[in-house]
Amino acid sequence: MSKVQVGLVQMSCTANKEENLQKAIAKTREAAAKGAQIVCLQELFTSLYFCDEENYDNFLLAEAIPGPSTDALSAVAKELGVVIIASLFEKRTQGLYHNTTAVLDADGTYLGKYRKMHIPDDPAYYEKFYFTPGDLGYKIFKTKFASIGVLICWDQWYPEAARITALMGAEILFYPTAIGWATSQDEATNTEQYNAWQTIQRSHAVANGIHVVSVNRVGLEQNGAMKFWGGSFISNPFGSLLYKASHDAEEVHVQELDLTKTDRYRTHWPFLRDRRIDSYQPITKRYIDED
């Protein structure tokens, strides 16, 4: 399809997993009512962002994929005729967990999953305690409405991940996200961090000539110590903002994307044509030390 209606759901979460799931389903219905054909939910939307601490009890939040949440969302996808991108805490087997996004097609079919490749470990983002790095590689999903690439939060800082996914044929890059500000920070630091976050993702749109959709959460968590900054946005294939959400409010937004723009921008700005793939071997090194 040359044009596709993309919906994003920016919402706050509680400690009640079922309540969060039902809230996400209600907002997916709202997006579908506005014409959405593909709906993207934020990272780990069925819970609070539990990686603020290293707590073994939080492993109880994990589930199989496919499993209960994907079963529930599959029924909704089929009923509404929409694609759903759902970021979940995956229990692969006993003692092995991933930060994973499942993709459900518009007929309810489970198309597969992407496991987050880049795992952060920072104050209040102790993801290495919970998640094994992804081992499925980068993925695209050929949905009813578009071939989509899905990357997750910390992946969004890495141009290599965006490039590979685009080269695999992704027409749109989706980034389910959970990122926020420490409430102790000053406004200048907050602004700089958000701008960097948005800029790096818009640069992926420019470099690869494809739309980028980034979906974040909102709300105070961690006993008020963290304010998730929302600011979900959609960029066209040349980095122009088509939509930007607020930093505070829950929002359901639907945006029409014209996928023919990719050919236009790639033709006039032929970054893919001029890639010197014969010269890129050094990128596989951790660091290029002098001999």
UniProtKB/TrEMBL annotation:
Domain CN hydrolase: 4-259
GO biological process: putrescine biosynthetic process from arginine
Entries under SUPFAM superfamilies matching the protein: Carbon-nitrogen hydrolase (SSF56317)
Domain of life (superkingdom): Bacteria
Keyword Hydrolase recorded: yes
Pfam families with a match to the protein in the record: CN_hydrolase
MF GO annotations: N-carbamoylputrescine amidase activity
Cited InterPro entries: Aliph_Amidase/BUP (IPR050345), C-N_Hydrolase (IPR003010), C-N_Hydrolase_sf (IPR036526)
The entry's keywords: Hydrolase
Entry-linked PANTHER family: BETA-UREIDOPROPIONASE (PTHR43674:SF2), NITRILASE C965.09-RELATED (PTHR43674)
Name of the featured protein: N-carbamoylputrescine amidase
Organism expressing this protein natively: Lacibacter cauensis
